[in-house]
Amino acid sequence: MKRVLRTYAIFQKELTQLKRDRMTFGMIVMIPLIQLMLFGYAINTNIRHIPVGVVDYSETGLSRVLIQAVSATQVVQVTARYLNVKQAESAIARADVRAVLVIPKDVSQRLVRHQAVGFGSPPSTDAETSRPVAQWIVDGSDTMIAAAIKSLRNMPLAELLDKPANRSTPTFEVTLLYNPEQRTAVNIVPGLVAVILTMTMIMFTSAAIVRERERGNLEMLITTPVRSIELMLGKIIPYMFIGGLQVAIILGLGNIVFNVPINGGLWQLAGATSLFITASLTLGLVISTIAKNQLQSTQMTIFVLLPSILLSGFMFPYDGMPEAAQYIAEVLPATHFVRLIRGVVLRDVEIIDMTFDVSWLALFTLAGLTVASLRFKKNLD
Amino acid sequence: MSELVIKATKVSRNFGALQAIKELDLEVEKGKIYGFLGPNGSGKTTAIRMLTGLLRPSAGDVQVLGLKLPQNAEKLRLYIGYMTQKFSLYDDLTVKENLQFVAKIYGLSGQVQKRRIDELLNVYGLEKAMDQLAGSMSGGQRQRLALAAATLHEPELLFLDEPTSAVDPENRREFWEQLFDLSDRGTSILVSTHYMDEAERCHKLAILESGVKRADGSPEALMQQMGVHVVEITSANLRQLKQDLLTLPDVISAAQLGARLRVLVRNSIADPLAFLAQQK
User: How far from chain centre, in Å, is Cα B160?
Assistant: First the structure.
């Protein structure tokens, strides 16, 4: 009986302490709630409305109808037009669109001769008469997107010319750029850099400052001539090196073990990662001015980390998420960095071309530093 | 009157509804050791924090070394030293590393830094413990380290918040020897304590209780002000004796110290010993 009483005493004490720690209590409810919402809404492997571009070399009524038919499938949504394939490929590299439909000049002839339509008789396997009607150039890094567009390959064309649906011959030719073997690792590993950095950069910096506050060191520090900005910079600089080391490990091992290519320049990579590291570090600083102890700082980090994993495009394609989720994703630095690092590592883009994401990260860093400096006061008021 | 290093006028500080300090007036002279005596919760730490610019007073003026606080808090940092009640240096750094860190913060580098640190290690008897982690040292050693760190930059004014509360009597005595040396060399010191014997060693003393200054003056003057004779009695039955004595109107207090009873008898009674003998 005594054993039960003692166990109960500990249990009761734990509950009382938990009740007083408001933030932990909040997290107990919020974390599963948010996870549920995110998993429910954002995760969608059945992708629709992929942004694509069109290069129409023929510009006839038929090509326009073809484009409409493609849009009608709702798998893709035409968001841009390009004048030639070169432009289109740069657009794909910059991730303006995920794929481009290239309609050749002789699309009308191809369509008429196509087996599915059946005008040519007898139906022949001659190369001339069974050519694909048009070509999809696809960013193959993300296997889910590529699969969605490949599913269009056998789009029935007969409706175009008011004929009954016929045998299935590939309507489109699909060309995969950047991940012809369609290996998942290629898309995941660069994204993994974002996730790991988010976790370590935010968690370590916030814990570092909070630990000083917890242990009472801060009271002595603020009576010395050291300034807030000096304290913050001195604390985050070691973590920049740690972040760099982690990037090297992830990408290096990814390359050696999983054959993930590193197509972009190392300077570009360094630029992109430095931007993201500083943005995450300032977020860690802001959290450290809010959290009262290390447990709270860890919880707040998790609060940022979970959406970063689920919404940033790391695992589940950004394009597959509903708009509301996409808006939330835009707030997270990880989302922008995932785009940047995939662009640099897989598609050899110059970061200066991805202006939106670069400026966003820079502004986020500035805002974070301002907030942290304002909140970090050198007094105990 | 010599130069004032601290001048506080009608300083108050509230924490919500709680009045931690109520209209405190303070004048501390240069080169003297000034004591804050008072029980736990009397406001000693709050007062010191206001005098170092860490807390903003809710009312009143504070002037330290001629500069108004809290506006000039940053300027003063180089000229004042502060030792907190709880050890606030780094447990996971060695004695030397801690001192090197503080030295750099105060702008000492190179040869100057090395010389000063060696000097301090010597003065405070920390040479043998130089490479020991601060967290693994005894209370007394940690206090000496904290004092070394607070005086590294040779401040004019030193604030010590209950510096010896976790320290054994011998270490306390040694600590005060250091304080007297510092005072001799011209450093002004404000120290808070709840030990009577330490309070006695100050040049001047303020007694705080519940945020209010109840008395102010040199220890001798304060003892005079009390207006009592102090008598010590030994007896077989001290507890009973104490109860009996407390009933007498001229006996202000009676407290048992080990095997003796210390009785405070009003000054108005010319011969306290005779008086007490009479009672029995």
Answer: 6
Range of the domain at B234: 227-279
Distance CA B12, CA B58 (A): 5
CA dihedral A261, A267, A272, A278 (to 10 degrees): 130
- A77, A155: one domain: yes
| Amino acid occupying residue B2 | S
Residue A113 lies in a domain: yes
One domain, residues B26 and B151: yes
| H or E element in which residue A375 lies | helix A355-375
Q: What is the mean pLDDT of each run of 10 residues along chain B (280 residues)?
A: 84 90 90 90 90 90 91 90 90 93 92 93 90 91 92 93 84 88 92 86 90 88 81 82 82 83 80 71
Domain total of chain A:
2
Tokens of B221: 């003057």
Q: How many CB atoms lie within 10 A of CB A155?
A: 20
Could you tell me the end-to-end alpha-carbon distance of chain A, in angstroms, rounded to an integer?
49
Query: Does residue A305 surpass a pLDDT of 60?
Result: yes
Together in a domain, B66 and B84: yes
Handedness of CA A304, A307, A313, A316 (dihedral sign): positive
Whether the Cβ atoms of residue B167 and residue B139 lie closer than 8 Å to each other: yes
Which of 210-229 (A) contact B at CB < 8 A? 215-217, 219-226
Residues B115 and B154 placed together within one structural domain of the fold: yes
Residue B203, burial from CB neighbour count under 10 angstroms (0-12, 13-18, 19+): middle
Rounded-to-integer distance, Cα B29 and Cα B208, Å: 19
What is the span of the domain harbouring residue A165?
A: 50-177
Q: Where are the alpha helices (DSSP H) in B57-157?
A: 73-76, 95-105, 110-123, 139-151
User: Is the dihedral angle over the CA atoms A314, A317, A319, A323 positive or is it negative?
Assistant: negative
Q: Which of B55, B88, B107 sits opposite A380 (nearest CB)?
A: B55
Q: Which residue among A216, A225, A380 sits closest to B77, beta carbon to beta carbon?
A: A225
User: Rounded to the nearest 5 degrees, what angle is found at the Cα of B41, between the Cα atoms of B37 and B45?
Assistant: 65
Domain boundary residue, one of A141, A159, A177: A177
Tell which of B51, B74, B86, B88 to mutate to test the A interface (max A CBs under 10 Å): B88
Number of structural domains found in chain B: 2
Closest CB to B56: pick one of A216, A223, A381.
A381
Same domain, B128 and B251: no
CATH number at residue A114: 3.40.1710
| Residue A19 domain-assigned (yes or no) | no
* Contact check, Cβ <8 Å, B86/A225: no
pTM above 0.90, yes or no: no
For residues B236 and B259, the answer to whether their CB atoms sit within 8 Å is no
Indicate if B259 and B125 belong to the same structural domain. Answer: no
Where a domain ends, among A134, A151, A177?
A177
Query: What is the strand order of the sheet B251-257 is part of?
Result: B228-234, B260-266, B251-257
The ipTM value here is: 0.77
Tell me the three state secondary structure of residue A75. coil
What is the DSSP secondary-structure string of A314-345? SSS-GGGS-HHHHHHHHHSHHHHHHHHHHHHH
Q: Which two tokens stand for residue A376?
A: 């970090």
The C-alpha R_g of chain B, in whole angstroms, comes to 22
Q: Are residues A243 and A150 in the same domain?
A: no
